[in-house]
Amino acid sequence: MKNLSAALAMIVVCLLTGNAAVVLAKEKGGFAEDATAMSITAGTGSGSMGDHSASSSVRRRRLRTKPVKAVVKNPASASGASSLILPAETGATVFPDPTVSSGSKAIWIYLGIQEAFLTESGIVVKTYQISSGAPATPTPLGVFKIYKKEELRVSGQAVPYRMPNYMSFTKNSAFGLHGLPYLGDSAKASSYWSEALSHIGIPVSHGCVRFLPEEAIELYKWADRGIPVFIQT
Predict the structure, then answer these.
(1) Residues 6 or more apart whose Cβ sits within 8 Å of residue 166
(2) Model confidence pTM above 0.90
(3) Which of 130, 141, 145, 147 is the most core-located residue (most Cβ within 10 A)?
(4) Cα separation of 224 and 147, whole Å?
(5) What's the pLDDT tens digit per position in 25-79?
(6) 40: Cβ–Cβ under 8 A, 6 or more apart, which residues?
């Protein structure tokens, strides 16, 4: 009888040794779904190592997450072009106004930083420093477009300022993008007056947006009639 009891006790010990790890795992609610990955051999002492290996494997699997694609909202779609912020780096991606068709060009004027950005398909391709309207004669804000291009425009004021590479962004041509104005036959030969290069970056114009002479030529060649011009603070 004693021998039978001892034999039964040994069987119970062996069973407990082989299944203890699985029972504990189930009680903890931990790795039931990974039980098949656990390698436990009764009576060999490998049960604890198998449980450690399985739990480490599960932890590794739980740490692996699928990449999440960021959802970027177009700020222009909610509040218009005035909410846009353009990076200054050439080649940076921007969010163009929804009215700008894909693949088209656009000009963005930021009066607060006295800079102009040229974009193609939402990519900044060129950045210029400008001189916009003085406080008494401000540059208008809003969404415009290039209505007319003139290689040289003479102002209708008492003093006939000559404005090279003029591109009007209002229907009446009262406001435009152009090179620094001058008096005389040309800016170089002018013996009367020419706009100081140091004025670029300072709002001193009568409302137009001025560019350096070489940059005005470059802009004039790049811009097409009808492309949008966004002007904001």
Answers:
(1) 149, 150, 151, 152, 153, 176, 177, 178
(2) no
(3) 130
(4) 9
(5) 333 443 333 333 333 333 334 343 344 334 433 333 333 333 322 222 333 333 3
(6) 18, 19, 21, 22, 46, 47, 50, 51
Cβ atoms 200, 121 nearer than 8 A = no
The secondary element (H helix, E strand) that includes residue 177 is: strand 176-179
Question: Of how many residues is the chain composed?
Answer: 233
Which among 185, 181, 177 has a CA at the least distance from the CA of 149? 177
CB 228, CB 107: distance < 8 Å: yes
End-to-end C-alpha distance for the chain, whole angstroms: 99
- Considering only CA atoms, give the Rg of the chain: 37
Pairing state between β 105-110 and 115-120: antiparallel
Task: Supply the CATH classification number for the domain 84-232.
Answer: 2.40.440.10
